[in-house]
Design brief:
Elements lengths: L2 H14 L13 H38 L2 H4 L2 H13 L3 H8 L1 E6 L2 E9 L3 E4 L1 H4 L6 E3 L5 E3 L1 E6 L4 E5 L23 E6 L7 E11 L8 E5 L10 E3 L5 E13 L2 E10 L1 H10 L6
Antiparallel strand pairs: 1-2, 1-4, 2-3, 3-7, 4-5, 6-7, 8-9, 8-11, 9-10, 10-13, 11-12, 12-13
């Protein structure tokens, strides 16, 4: 092919082909743009619904986790001691003891105390009131009183509070001045364990024993003792307080490990009561 013929061929091909600078049509039209905007709005609404569903599911999971702790709190032992308390409370004697047992509380928690004088003196543990402010004492019918600490014995973990009962007639528990509590004696323990108030339970004196953290011997009791029982009176069959619960421990007995309640003999409080001239219940 001559040069002239080749030039004509190229010119003819150029006329047949689309120009290189012609713009390509858009990938979507205005109608497509409206459809795309609606698509994204629909997707945003779906995302909001999904967030709400996830929030509900998360709340359900959290609730399930909280509820899973209830069996730990209301376990069979708790059910058992509540059942025992209900049966014991049918007795007028035990029901009367409960009237003298109070909740000793503050913003930091609660413990147990009991009235020893109608003049408004209440015994509890020192660790229940240690470092606390704005103490209060409340009784079965819901009446609460501000309380002040009039005496404390940290080494024996005992404290004496006083309230002004006004015209209210307080029930008081007599104290066992002989300080006698023999191994095998049956006793009652009344306190405010866990989330409950004035729970009565029966126990048995194991005996007196020394512990490393205290300079005085303490009384071990085979009985259900829980958090909140600190300050509970240990009452003998004559209705006298022989000790004050302050802790629990595991001890070896007859080759077996057993959990026991620990209590301070009431005799370690008597000198303070006599010094203050407290008129005790008889």
């Amino acid at each position: 092919m001559s040069d002239r013929e080749e030039e004509k061929f190229e010119e003819e091909r150029a006329r047949r082909e689309q120009p290189w600078d012609e713009q390509e049509p858009p990938l979507w039209s205005d109608a497509d743009e409206e459809e795309d905007q609606a698509y994204f709005e629909k997707k945003a609404r779906a995302r909001k619904r999904l967030k709400k569903i996830l929030a509900v599911l998360l709340a359900a999971v959290l609730l399930a986790n909280v509820l899973s702790f209830w069996p730990m709190l209301y376990n069979m032992q708790a059910i058992r001691f509540l059942s025992v308390s209900r049966e014991l409370s049918r007795s007028d004697q035990v029901s009367g003891y409960k009237q003298a047992v109070a909740v000793v509380g503050s913003k930091g928690g609660k413990g147990t105390g009991f009235v020893v004088s109608s003049g408004g003196y209440i015994v509890t543990n020192y660790h229940v009131i240690e470092g606390k402010s704005s103490l209060f004492v409340s009784f079965p019918k819901g009446k609460s009183y501000p309380a002040e600490v009039v005496s404390s014995n940290p080494s024996a973990d005992l404290a004496l509070l006083r309230i002004d009962p006004g015209d209210a007639a307080l029930h008081a528990l007599p104290l066992n001045r002989a300080g006698s509590a023999q191994s095998g004696d049956s006793v009652y323990i009344i306190g405010n364990p866990l989330m409950f108030d004035r729970v009565a339970n029966a126990g048995t004196i194991v005996g007196e024993m020394p512990i490393d953290s205290m300079d005085i011997p303490i009384i071990a009791i085979e009985a259900p003792i829980y958090k909140g029982n600190s300050g509970s009176p240990v009452i003998n069959e004559q209705g006298e307080v022989v000790a004050v619960v302050f802790a629990t421990a595991s001890i070896e007995r007859s080759g077996e490990t057993m959990k026991v309640g620990l209590a301070i003999p009431i005799r370690y409080l008597l000198s303070d009561l006599d010094r203050l001239g407290v008129s005790l219940a008889q």
